[in-house]
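Re: your question from the hallway

Yes, I did run it. Sequences:
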Amino acid sequence: MSRTINLTLKVWRQNKANPGGFETYEARSISKDMSFLEMLDVVNEELIVAGKEPIAFDHDCREGICGMCGSVVNGRAHGHMEKTTLCQLHMRHFSDGDTVSIEPWRARAFPVIKDLVVDRSTLDEIIRAGGYVSVNTGGAPDANAMPIPTEMAEKAFNAAACIGCGACVAACPNASAMLFVGAKISHLSILPQGRPEAAKRAWAMVTKMDKLGFGNCSNETECEAECPKGISILEIARMNREFFKAAFF
Amino acid sequence: MTLDAKIPAGDLAGKWDRYRFDCKLVNPANKKKFTIIVVGTGLAGASAAASLGELGYNVKSFCIQDSPRRAHSIAAQGGINAAKNYANDGDSIFRLFYDTIKGGDFRSREANVYRLAQISNNIIDHCVAQGIPFARDYGGGLAYRSFGGAQVSRTFYAKGQTGQQLLLGAYGALMRQVAKGSVTLYPRREMLDLVLVDGKARGIVVRNLVTGELESHAGHAVILATGGYGNTYFLSTNAMGSNVTATWRAYKKGAFFANPCFTQIHPTCIPVHGEHQSKLTLMSESLRNDGRVWVPKQPGDKRNPADIPESERDYYLERKYPSFGNLVPRDVASRNAKEECDRGKGVGQTGLAVYLDLADAIKSRGKAEIESKYGNLFEMYEKITGENPYEAPMKIYPAVHYTMGGLWVDYNLMTTIPGLFAAGEANFSDHGANRLGASALMQGLCDGYFVIPYTIGGYLASSSLGEASANGPEFSDAMAAISDNIKHLLAINGKQSAISFHRRLGKILWDHCGIARRDDDMKKGLCLIQNLRAEFGNDVRVPGDEADFNQALENAGRVADFLEFAELLVTDALSRRESCGCHLNVDFQTPEHEALRDDENFSHVAAWEYSGRDKEPVLHKEPLVFENVALTRRSYK
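Structure:
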């Protein structure tokens, strides 16, 4: 079995002068052990040596935790593998001769900066609205002063595992950020430390999300399917509960 | 110039208390008049910016990523140490202090390390109050585990994503200050120079990575929390964007660089797969708690691991270090893995790997328990290698992971430039010649939440500083020099990409100044680096424009700095005529191949001063004084 494959890439190119379109590239002799981004590195190196502009894409840790990378590959956010960021998608999951389309996240709240790079600062804006516990440095009680059942800690962790990549928004037909927002609201409302501000937080974050141009949830569950951290839409249900409580009680 | 570490007098345990009492305070009403520039938003940078914002300072926070939450602290897996002694197993502040000093092979400062151990407890308290979802035991208390090189259980964790959870906590605290208006965020900005006015750090010049514009930012003090320089080796566990540029340019403006040769090679990484590999992935060494490291006894044994019977396996760490076994410190574990592979006992396609086997733990404690502890690590391993670690042992090999060296700082975490502070991995202060597991998160948060907020106040209250303004000639000169530099890079128009130079630089360093260092190799390495740098200057090709989002240009600038910095790294390694911690010069070792320190002549911090382009840097020595611990030879037998 050959350890390398050849691919045809259809890549979205866009910059200040060019409103955007697909361009075709050949990716030759790609080792199956490479990650998707290493495959793009190879294509980019050829472009650079030829004096052409490489394909711009965001990436950093390349181990699936920083949340910086992400593109829509063959119509799927982060590609077709379950619970995988683009940097963790390996070329062994592609076949020789495949044609692969690569596009940026598409959402009104994520304007394209260049090629595959989008501006996701709206996600920061949402956290800024209340995605934290209001505690200043210094003066915290002993870490073990408040016992927290292990199941509760696990539940909070599962929500807190969100990496803020924006795949949920890209996957949603409404470009909703509810999985992202739900994950943070759940994480903090499950834990006793986050309870005092739970209502205020839910109200502030949800209304901010709406203002920033993210769509609403219509239960397509695409977000859950594409989330690289496997965050459940249960978190959206929890968010809705916290939001209703904030509105009515 | 004599290096004054400004260590407070008096007994070790009382130093930090006395310091805080003696430290001048800034009047609360005046704090908002001070602008503090914080570069980097990892654990140290985000926690410093948030805490300074809480105190009322006017903070400007910069990062190269699109959001502060992306900083590479996010990738730390294993955990964070604290001397809580919740396990009732004999831990104490003094023991954490001692373990850290000893783990660093007696090449760090007693006073700094003791303060770190004292503050470790406050960090855990604060992080729990922030809502960090740490692992819990069934009684609801925090769960803890023993971690690389420690015989007590003092490491707190959130699955294998402790760094992520702690960073998101600090990021939340930072965003809260952004909402309050005390912190202004500047994402996608790269610091390209430090600006001094009257000999003091008064601002920075950054490039806006989206538009390509250069911007000047003035302040009353500058904090660099820009991480380590592990990517000088090209292949490391660092993120792709991690770089030395900010600290290197500060060095060129007069900040001394300390112990650059102290580079930690982490023993448990996923082995290299091929020449186009862009980075290496760490497998948390918490796996060593339950995993057993082994190679076949017979060199060249290429059998499937399952077909190699117990009697033909060499669990070499357990054999050589019976009391610590698989939990020996990182440098010892890395060196032994290399030695076994050099003997031809390495496994896998390349022969550059050893087994890390959890089969016994799965057998005795069940798959469910192992999965709950390491599930996400196993998943990650399977994603990268395509092999299932529940069925076959993992293959691991050492890789560059962390750099103990960094900008020289005194007890205040201030560099040799007044008003320039360095925090977290960017400074050299606490880990000596080797960092213990779960201590990086502790140090980053210690510096940012609890040390800098005090020491910077002391500096501001006792210095006379004029208003912060970016209109002076110092700023316009720096901007002009950077602009020239960028134009020059774009104009070389050669034939090779910056990344190809970076890859070659990494290979030179790994081969000539890696796990086991030889004088001849290092000297040859120096020549190779100089040649490569000259070639880069003539033949690099950087496409695209200056006034645009241009990742090729960003990368070329960073590679140019790595090429310069690498020379200092090797120079430092050559000048340290001993072995200590991570730095093993094969001419200085015990008959059992352990690092042989020379305390009489090398019990010092080597701090390097820039003396101009193509001139030899000047070495300054800060003697290390040990009043509270006896210098012993580390033994993990």
